[in-house]
Amino acid sequence: MPQLCVSLNDVRRAAERIAPFAHRTPVLTCTGLDHIAEATLFFKCENFQKVGAFKFRGAMNAVARLSAAELARGVATHSSGNHAAALALAARMREAEAFIVMPANAPEVKKRAVAGYGATITFCEPTLEAREAALLQLLEERGCTPVHPYNHPDIIAGQGTAALELLEEFPDLDTVLAPVGGGGLLSGTAIASTELRRGARVFGAEPAGADDAFRSLAEGKILPSVAPCTIADGLLTALGELTFPILQERVEGIVRVGEEAIVQAMRLVWERMKILIEPSAAVPLAAVLQDQKLVRGERVGVILSGGNVDLDHLPWAGSELR
Question: Is the pLDDT of residue 103 over 90?
């Protein structure tokens, strides 16, 4: 087996490092959803995290490890929104500048959040190639310190602290699910879950319209995310060279779900649990409801990754799902 870039000890050290800054988010249950899923579900509510998403964990861990010289140059990244906001806030807490490349079609609520935390935003075309090219130009012009949104050991370790908290509170889970885009959250979740609960299964959940993680694991190599099309805007990126081997070793599989299933799961959480989640966060629940045989009768942890929703453009407004 190849040596993985992150260990359980790295996740534990990240938890200690971010404890003064990040929220320890609640784990909620819902009898109604348990009945529908035919399983006992435990929702780790990262929608209540700072900046409204799990991304603050990794960003804060990464920024907290930078030297004074690195912070003085400022930090930079590309992101569709949640990592951008997380890095902007983490940088502000360390009195550093943040420079963010965002796709022009990112939700307005996320653009406003990033600007509100004081970051300087550069907009680009909504492709991974355009994002990376714009970031490279920014790094060359300003000399700032890059903080990758997922393909970074400190980011992966920080994201793993959500599952660490979940398993500390409920150590007898059978299965844990998390959404997957670039793989930072799922990688950290897999490390923490499989180390703390031997025999636990970990699944990723992914939109069918952006299924590069599913295809990559099937092919045994990283495949690009080409023209992804999904309402789950936080899951548009491809896996990285650090996240891919972790998923290969520690993840049972990737479950693909359709757009209608994502919207229905999102609405169910709003209606039954009375909490607000974004489409990306609904993808793991959609996976559970789509294939109930997957976890029937089990105790299941579900990472609700965030709650940043554009309330002016709800996915069921004007549709038959209303």
Answer: no
- Alpha carbons within 13 angstroms on the beta-carbon side of residue 179 total 32
How confident is the model over 32-41, as pLDDT tens digits? 999 999 999 9
Q: What is the pLDDT of residue 121?
A: 94
For residue 25, give the 3-state DSSP assignment: coil
Residues annotated as catalytic (active site), given as ranges? 55, 80
Q: Are residues 159 and 135 part of one domain?
A: no
* Neighbour tally for 105: CB within 10 Å: 11
Please state the separation of Cα 263 from the chain's center in Å.
18
- Cα-trace Rg, the chain: 18
For 43-55, b/e burial (b = at least 16 CB within 10 A) is bbbbbbbbbbbbb
Bridge partner residues of 299 (DSSP):
40
The 10s digit of each residue's pLDDT in 229-277 is 899 988 988 999 999 999 999 999 999 999 999 999 999 999 999 999 9
Same domain, 66 and 177: no
Asked if residue 67 and residue 47 are part of one domain, the reply reads no
Average pLDDT over residues 2-21: 93
Write the single-letter amino acid at 227.
Answer: A
Mean pLDDT computed over 208-214: 96
CATH number reported for the structural domain that contains residue 204 in this entry: 3.40.50.1100
Residue 60 is part of which domain span? 56-146
**Are residues 165 and 276 located together in one domain of the fold?**
yes
Within this chain, do residues 200 and 284 fall inside the same structural domain, yes or no? yes
294 burial class (0-12, 13-18, 19+ CB within 10 angstroms)?
buried
| Report field, pTM of the whole predicted structure over 0.85 | yes
Q: Which residues pair with 199 in a beta bridge?
A: none
